[in-house]
Amino acid sequence: MKTNSRSFHLRTLSFLLALVSTFPVWAQALPTVVVQPHPVDLTLPVEATVEAVAQTTLTSQVSGRVTEMRVDAGQTVKKGELLMRIDAREASEVAAGASAQFINARANYERLKNLRQQNFISAAALDKARADFEAAQAAHGQASVSLGYATVTAPISGVVAQRLIEQGETAAPGRPLLTIYDPDGLRVTASIPQYQLPQMRAVKQARVEFPELGKWIDAKAVTLLPTADVATHVSQVRVGLPADMKDVIPGMFARVHFVVGRAQRMTVPAATVVRRGEVAAVYVQNEQGALSLRQLRLGETSAGGEIEVLAGLASGERVVLDPVKAGIALKSAQSSKSLNSAGK
Fold first, then answer.
1. Which CATH class is domain 89-148?
2. What is the separation of C-alpha 120 from the centre of its chain, rounded to a whole number of angstroms?
3. Which of 97, 181, 256, 292 has the smallest number of CB atoms closer than 10 Å to its CB?
4. Which residues pair with 64 in a beta bridge?
5. Does 181 have pLDDT greater than 90?
6. 3-state secondary structure labels for all residues of the chain
């Protein structure tokens, strides 16, 4: 009969945990923590994404080849700093033509004003000359502004998130060039379904977990937006982050733990838990200093990084804070006992 591999491994691991627990080890030097029920925050964990409060994507306003590129992704820039230059010869030619037309229209308008004062031309002819002059003036101003777009500068201080064009490529009006964001203004945004909105309206406190970094951060503010998505019927919640968030970047995954109440719970530090597949255990030290491995049934991780214990520990027991050292001590004791048994 073919044995289910997963069930076999779980039975084997359970047997080993039971076997190890029969070999107590004297380990008074290991630091421990006494577990007992204590007030903890009840939280609603929601997946979220990091966003930049201030972020801008620069687009080209002129046509031309990128002749100089001074920045790359990940580089810090200051407001007003030169980022790139575009060879806008076409814009220069347009600006030159608009300038010449403006000069001619202005001269013609001034000449016709004098003629009108002498009643040599009609009021309609002067009105047309004035309209031509104003149109040429507007075209000249626009052409001059467009020519200024040939040099691209940073509109804000921050970090270059993306470089969307390379030196030598041709820019065209509307083409994205660079994306810049301010790293000192970050937030995380989570989506909340409608049935949880009444609970969320009372939330004022939250902690943000970054699982990949092993980091927890207290939120600066929690803002529930007063709108819902038409298609998904969810509302967004924005959670402010403190400034100078090192290693945290826009687009990163995060988990927001919204505090919805408090209750008495027994917890252990996450670092004390040893995991082997679906089995979790901790090293426990009794009053005589003997050490053993105890299998647990765990609940949710709290906002402080503590894990709720549903079964496997009693109030007042001591859990070893360093499971690696405890494991080494346990293996050493097993080896010593085996040698002693062999020598008898």
1. mainly alpha
2. 72
3. 97
4. 171
5. yes
6. CCCCHHHHHHHHHHHHHHHHCCCCEECCCCCEEECCCEEEEEEEEEEEEEEECCEEEEECCCCEEEEEECCCCCCEECCCCEEEEEECHHHHHHHHHHHHHHHHHHHHHHHHHHHHHCCCCCHHHHHHHHHHHHHHHHHHHHHHHHHHCCEEECCCCEEEEEECCCCCCEECCCCEEEEEECCCCEEEEEEEEHHHHHHHCCCCCEEEEECCCCEEEECCEEEECCCCCCCCCEEEEEEECCCCCCCCCCCCEEEEEEEEEEEEECEEEHHHCEEECCEEEEEEECCCCEEEEEEEEEEEECCCCEEEEEECCCCCCEEECCHHHHHHHHHHHHHHHHHHHHHC
In tens, the pLDDT along 44-82 reads 888 999 999 999 999 988 788 888 899 999 899 999 999
Domain 45-54+183-261: assigned CATH number: 2.40.30.170
In CATH terms, the fold of domain 60-82+151-181 is OB fold (Dihydrolipoamide Acetyltransferase, E2P) (2.40.50)
Residue 28 has pLDDT above 70, yes or no: no
Which CATH code fits 5-37+266-343?
2.40.420.20
- Please say if the pLDDT value at position 5 is more than 90: no
Total residues belonging to the chain: 344
d(CA 320, CA 269): 10
**% of the chain with per-residue pLDDT over 70:** 79
